[in-house]
């Protein structure tokens, strides 16, 4: 027998029993959403936090599979979901994104917006589809398409980088320089190697809120390594309720630099703690001013658990109000 | 992504994910668990561009992404691997067939990542030299020489078995 045939046999035998799990589709979609820059709304968190309080803690803490939307959620997830209060997903395709998010909030669902149109676009698709029954607090992904503006270039350029490879990044706050100073706070410390993500969102997380993010070299547009949200006024009140929800799920604040900080892994619906969620720190800096910092799951993995915690602490310690 | 895109992606996964996972395990020499993580990460890229690439041979795109990811993952793991595989096995395996296969796989894992990828694609996936070259972004001549050198190194290291293998 020739060596190449022996080798082929050995390789075949080595992987013959390997099967991809049927949940791979759900895992890929979850990963996809987790790495997108988030445009969550604080309003959604308010509604869903109230629901989370009514759910047995073990469900809330282990909500990973149940909170994973999409057709590939397995039978286990379904079985768990039936223990939660269920709601029908409203139809929002065609609506302006802001209106659609409000509709989801009223239905007791979370909303994550992705796609080229950002918070100012129109909903081109929704997942799960309208009419599907999902547990209350479930995250619905809205794909936002930019509303065409006839005053803009009537003949779209046909460059090679059009399409979903180059999503439009919102820049509501304009040029922030290094991105460290916005919304009335300044980030004195950021991990080495990060630069400003050259985008920002105003009121994407409730009124009044400001958000921007920083990226490692080589990330695709729309992805983040560290994202920060500053909540003022009503938005800050709603975040305080989200923190209360974390407490009800068993989380306890850590004292850092005189601040009481909740460091949790936030799930698809930001008010839920999930084992595989996004590493998130959130705290009230002072009355009417709250801050949230998120590390993308990819970036956190790269830092390792200890490294991620260390960097998170330094970011928190380095933050100061500027007014 | 339309609902039809989503459904097509699920079909694609049902048809191809096991094969891609197997390729990843062989190319990066990792455990199934690590390889799954790698394949998910690579397929997230496929998913991100799905509506654009689904009609344009998504399989070869996916395979290219997975193989490249496996090669770079394997480079990162290399130091640890050298230590692990340099140790002699604790107990001799029972069946000579199993023993031969284990030895072959051990030697395969000790090759440089790209050379190993060439052997996996050429002899396990049964791709032609041209197909392998297209997938790896190199010339057919490079594929030919890498395959020959890979086989020669395995043959050399298994020198004690001379005669058993042609």
Task: For the structure shown, list the relevant keywords.
heterodimer, A: 323 residues, alpha+beta, 15 strands, B: 166 residues, mainly alpha, 2 domains, 0% strand
Quick description:
The complex is a heterodimer of chains A (323) and B (166). Chain A has 323 residues and is an alpha+beta fold.
Present the secondary structure layout.
The complex is a heterodimer of chains A (323) and B (166).
Chain A: H1 3-15, H2 24-35, H3 42-53, H4 57-61, H5 64-67, H6 75-81, E1 86-88, H7 97-106, E2 110-114, E3 122-127, E4 133-135, E5 139-145, E6 181-182, E7 185-187, E8 195-202, E9 209-215, E10 226-232, H8 233-248, E11 254-256, E12 259-266, E13 278-286, E14 289-295, H9 297-318, E15 319-321
Parallel strand pairs in A: 2-5
Antiparallel strand pairs in A: 1-4, 3-5, 6-7, 7-15, 8-9, 9-10, 10-14, 11-12, 12-13, 13-14
Chain B: H1 3-28, H2 32-48, H3 50-53, H4 58-86, H5 96-110, H6 113-124, H7 129-136, H8 140-157
Describe the protein's architecture and organization.
The complex is a heterodimer of chains A (323) and B (166). Chain A is of the alpha+beta class and 323 residues long. Chain A has one domain (29-149, 169-321). In chain A, 31% of the residues lie in helices and 25% in strands. Chain A contains nine helices and 15 strands. The longest helix of chain A has 22 residues, at 297-318. The radius of gyration of chain A is 21 Å and the shape is globular. Chain B has 166 residues and is mainly α. Chain B has two domains: 1-77, no CATH class; 88-166, Orthogonal Bundle (Arc Repressor Mutant, subunit A). Helix content of chain B is 78%, strand content 0%. Chain B is built from eight helices and no strands. Chain B has helices spanning 3-28, 32-48, 50-53, 58-86, 96-110, 113-124, 129-136, 140-157. Chain A binds chain B through residues 1-15, 18-21, 24-25, 27-29, 31-32, 35, 70-72, 125, 127, 129, 143, 163-165, 220, and chain B through 1-3, 6-7, 9-10, 13, 17-18, 20-22, 25-26, 32, 36, 39-41, 43-44, 47-49, 51-52, 100-102, 104-105, 108, 119-120, 122-124, 126, 151, 154-155, 165-166.
């Amino acid at each position: 027998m020739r060596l190449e045939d022996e080798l082929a046999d050995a390789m075949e035998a080595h992987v013959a029993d390997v099967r991809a799990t049927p949940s791979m589709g759900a895992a890929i979609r979850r990963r996809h959403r987790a790495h997108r820059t988030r445009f969550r709304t604080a309003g959604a968190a308010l509604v869903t936090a109230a629901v989370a309080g009514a759910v047995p803690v073990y469900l809330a803490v282990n909500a990973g599979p149940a909170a994973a939307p999409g057709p590939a959620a397995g039978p286990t997830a379904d079985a768990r979901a039936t223990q939660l209060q269920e709601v029908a997903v409203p139809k929002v395709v065609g609506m302006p994104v802001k209106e659609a998010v409000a509709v989801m909030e009223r239905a007791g669902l979370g909303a994550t917006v992705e796609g080229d149109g950002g918070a100012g676009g129109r909903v081109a698709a929704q997942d799960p589809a309208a009419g599907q029954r999902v547990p209350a607090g479930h995250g619905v992904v809205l794909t936002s398409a930019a509303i065409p503006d006839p005053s803009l270039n009537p003949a779209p350029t046909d460059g090679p980088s059009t399409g979903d490879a180059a999503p439009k990044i919102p820049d509501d706050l304009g040029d922030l320089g290094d991105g460290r100073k916005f919304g009335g706070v300044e980030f004195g410390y950021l991990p080495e190697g990060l630069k400003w993500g050259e985008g920002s969102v105003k009121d994407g997380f409730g009124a009044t809120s400001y958000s921007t993010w920083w990226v490692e070299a080589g990330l695709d547009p729309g992805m983040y390594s560290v994202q920060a949200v500053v909540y003022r006024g009503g938005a800050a009140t709603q975040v305080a309720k989200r923190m209360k929800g974390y407490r009800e799920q068993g989380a306890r604040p850590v004292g850092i630099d005189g601040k009481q900080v909740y460091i949790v892994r936030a799930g698809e619906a930001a008010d839920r703690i999930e084992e595989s969620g996004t590493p998130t720190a959130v705290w009230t800096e002072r009355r009417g001013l709250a801050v949230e910092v998120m590390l993308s799951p990819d970036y956190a993995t790269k830092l390792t658990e200890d490294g991620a915690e260390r960097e998170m602490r330094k970011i928190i310690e380095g933050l100061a109000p500027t007014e | 992504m339309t609902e039809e895109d989503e459904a097509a992606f699920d079909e694609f996964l049902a048809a191809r994910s096991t094969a891609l996972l197997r390729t990843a395990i062989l190319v990066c020499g990792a455990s199934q668990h690590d390889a799954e993580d790698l394949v998910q990460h690579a397929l997230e890229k496929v998913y991100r561009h799905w509506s654009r690439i689904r009609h344009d041979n998504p399989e070869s795109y996916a395979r290219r992404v997975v193989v490249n990811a496996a090669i770079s993952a394997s480079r990162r793991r290399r130091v640890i691997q050298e230590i692990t595989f340099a140790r002699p096995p604790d107990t001799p395996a029972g069946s000579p067939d199993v023993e031969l296969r284990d030895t072959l796989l051990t030697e395969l894992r000790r090759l440089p990542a790209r050379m190993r990828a060439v052997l996996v694609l050429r002899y396990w996936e049964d791709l032609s030299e041209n197909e392998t070259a297209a997938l790896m972004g190199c010339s057919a001549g490079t594929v030919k020489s890498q395959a020959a050198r890979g086989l020669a190194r395995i043959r050399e290291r298994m020198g004690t078995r001379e005669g058993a293998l042609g």
